[in-house]
């Protein structure tokens, strides 16, 4: 791993033991591999620490940080971002799964269009068997060529 990876993934977590290993597997199984995964454990009281340490010991792309006390969700999100070194950044969640080519396709899209500042994918809520239960209706106009329309949709 280089000192400055192309992509940083920030994963703030608190008591995420139920789905964390599956999320790690989905991220570590990506077809795009030039990234660091920075995990900020917000003083979890469940098995999160053990899972994080086990995965970090197996994969040098993972940098595990355990906070001595819970600082709250938003500050933990901010903190993990400050610990990332990559040129590009992606948030990750302890309870999300990712298509194997998500990172590659997003990085390629950004490389193809240097004027683009955001790449993302559709998402959905799935059940325990991986079946889509609730499709996610994306309401932001990020695809609009008009900056005021994109801005208004964020408000």
Keywords:
single chain; 155 residues; alpha/beta; 2 domains; 4-stranded parallel beta sheet; globular
Output the CATH homologous superfamily of the largest domain.
Spore Coat Polysaccharide Biosynthesis Protein SpsA, Chain A
Name the helicity range: 25-40%
- The portion of residues forming beta strands comes to 15-25%
CATH topology grouping of the largest domain: Spore Coat Polysaccharide Biosynthesis Protein SpsA, Chain A
Count of extended strands: 6
Protein structure class: alpha/beta
Provide the spatial order of strands within the biggest beta sheet.
3-2-1-4
* Count of folded domains: 2
Instruction: Report the average pLDDT across residues.
Output: 91
Specify Rg, calculated over alpha carbons: 16 Å
Give the biggest sheet.
4 strands, parallel
Structural account:
- The chain has 155 residues and is an alpha/beta fold.
- It is built from five helices and six strands.
- The strands form two sheets. Strands 3-2-1-4 form a four-stranded parallel β-sheet, sandwiched between helices.
- Strand 1 (7-13), helix 1 (20-28) and strand 2 (35-41) form a beta-alpha-beta unit.
List the helices and strands and how they pair.
Blueprint: E1 7-13, H1 20-28, E2 35-41, H2 48-58, E3 62-66, H3 73-82, E4 88-91, H4 102-112, E5 124-126, E6 132-135, H5 147-154
Parallel strand pairs: 1-2, 1-4, 2-3
Antiparallel strand pairs: 5-6
Write a brief structural summary:
Helix content is 32%, strand content 19%. The protein is of the alpha/beta class and 155 residues long.
């Amino acid at each position: 791993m280089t000192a400055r990876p192309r992509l940083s993934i920030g994963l703030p977590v608190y008591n995420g033991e139920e789905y964390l290993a599956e999320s790690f597997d989905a991220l570590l199984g990506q077809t795009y591999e030039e990234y660091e995964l920075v995990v900020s454990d917000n003083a979890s009281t469940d098995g999160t620490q053990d899972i994080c340490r086990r995965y970090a010991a197996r994969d040098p792309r993972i940098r595990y940080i355990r906070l001595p006390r819970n600082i709250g969700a938003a500050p933990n999100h901010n903190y993990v971002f400050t610990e990332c070194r990559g040129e590009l950044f992606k948030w990750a969640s302890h309870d999300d799964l990712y298509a194997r080519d998500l990172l590659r396709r997003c990085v390629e899209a950004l490389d193809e269009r240097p004027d683009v500042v955001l790449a993302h994918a559709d998402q959905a809520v799935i059940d325990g068997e991986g079946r889509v239960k609730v499709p996610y209706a994306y309401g932001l106009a990020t695809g609009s060529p008009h900056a005021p329309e994109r801005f208004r949709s964020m408000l």
